[in-house]
Amino acid sequence: MKSSKPANLRVSGAGCSTPSLDDVMSDGLLDNPVLAALNYAQDQLGRCSERAAVYHPDVSPLAGVSEPLPAALRELAQLVPVGSGVGVVHIEAGLPELPEWRPIQVVCLHQMVCEEPFAEAEEFDDLSLSDVADMLELAQATDPGPFLKRTIEMGRYVGVRRNGRLVAMAGERMKPPGWVEISGVCTHPDGRGHGYASRLVVALLKDCFATGQRAFLHVREGSSSEARATAIYERLGFRHRRDMFGHFLQRTDANP
Q1: How many domains would you assign to the chain?
Q2: Staple partner for 188: which of 28, 125, 156, 167, CB 3.0–4.6 Å?
Q3: How far is CA 249 from CA 95, 130, 212, in A?
Q4: CA–CA distance from 222 to each of 5, 109, 226, 228, 229 (Å)?
Q5: Is the pTM of this model over 0.85?
């Protein structure tokens, strides 16, 4: 029987290569973090072709493409069902228009990196699969970015409960070699004023640096929390690296 897998598709660890030491030590991988993460440590969480990669739809909507962009976007179309949406994270503010994709929205993401934490860490409880319903509820109330039922599989998540209710959380998302993205940072309005967000981030940074990795994150331009979040992250040792762009696209029924 003929395989339905697109040509050159790598799934769940097949065909992934090992990054060079120069790749790991530089920050160049952060120019294409989805592609870097899914080609290495997180390959079991998504699908890859030669020039494109996308997380499983219940893990994250994020996708990555390499050059040349038209060919990469056509390969990405082979990995995504008709009607589904993805968020392509890329350094370019504009992507080629192709019949396979309907542009929905473009957002600017301020990418920040931390190579040396400035604060002492506290211990917080890890969140697990049994907490996912509460995490989804908190994410819906605070909009920290895409958070789905399997997002927790991307890394460690920590949280704070008050009277049994989850009021704050933060976690790990993309993991390019040598780097860990801090994501899902949010606090319910009822839990604000206690510094939970910054304290949770510092706890994650402690683990990150203990394993010889560095941290990065993205702040969405124009979000209601942009100024507040940026100030907090700068106090914790993050600095602006570059602007990235999130291209939200919907797969049409056109064939690649």
Answers
A1: 2
A2: 167
A3: 10, 32, 35
A4: 39, 9, 6, 12, 12
A5: yes
